[in-house]
């Protein structure tokens, strides 16, 4: 099992789990190797279990965050400090 800080998931493969899209893992939660995570759910606990569906606002924020991090990465690689 691995401990994750709050993590928007499409990074499930990094911990040996499987997720579709739009999964959020609560801070300190443990994901069992090989666990299949259901899309659109919030997982918390040790071991992590689905506790509720993500709201549309939370899913939109996941998209925004991912796009923002890509922009930051691209700016860094291009030498821009914006």
Give a brief outline of the structure.
27% of the residues lie in helices and 33% in strands.
> SSE order in H/E notation?
EEEEEEEEH
Strand pairing plus helix content: what structural class? alpha/beta
Helix amount, in percent?
A: 25-40%
CATH architectural arrangement: 3 Solenoid
User: Number of DSSP helices?
Assistant: 1
**Shape from CA axes?**
elongated
Task: Give the strand content.
Answer: 25-35%
Rounded to an integer, what's the Rg over CA atoms?
Answer: 14 Å
Overall number of strands? 8
- CATH superfamily membership, which one? Hexapeptide repeat proteins
| Poorly predicted residue ranges | 1-14
Average pLDDT over all residues: 81
CATH level 1 class label: Mainly Beta
In total, how many domains does the architecture comprise?
Answer: 1
Q: Main sheet, how many strands, which sense, barrel? A: 4 strands, mixed
Secondary structure layout plus pairing:
Layout: E1 2-4, E2 7-9, E3 18-19, E4 23-25, E5 29-31, E6 36-37, E7 41-45, E8 48-53, H1 56-77
Written overview of the protein:
The protein is 27% helix and 33% strand. With 82 residues, the chain is of the alpha/beta class. The protein has one domain (2-77): Hexapeptide repeat proteins (UDP N-Acetylglucosamine Acyltransferase, domain 1). Strands 2-4-7-8 form a four-stranded mixed sheet, with no helix packed on it. It has a two-stranded antiparallel ribbon with strand order 1-5. A hairpin with a 2-residue loop joins strand 7 (41-45) and strand 8. The radius of gyration is 14 Å and the shape is elongated. Residues 1-14 have low confidence and may be disordered.
């Amino acid at each position: 099992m691995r401990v994750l800080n709050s993590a928007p998931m499409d990074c499930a493969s990094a911990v040996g789990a499987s997720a579709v899209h739009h999964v959020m893992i609560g801070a300190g939660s443990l994901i069992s190797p090989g666990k299949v995570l259901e899309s659109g759910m919030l997982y918390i606990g040790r071991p992590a279990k689905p506790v509720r569906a993500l709201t549309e606002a939370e899913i939109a924020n996941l998209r925004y965050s991912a796009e923002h991090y890509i922009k930051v990465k691209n700016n860094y690689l291009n030498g821009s400090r914006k």
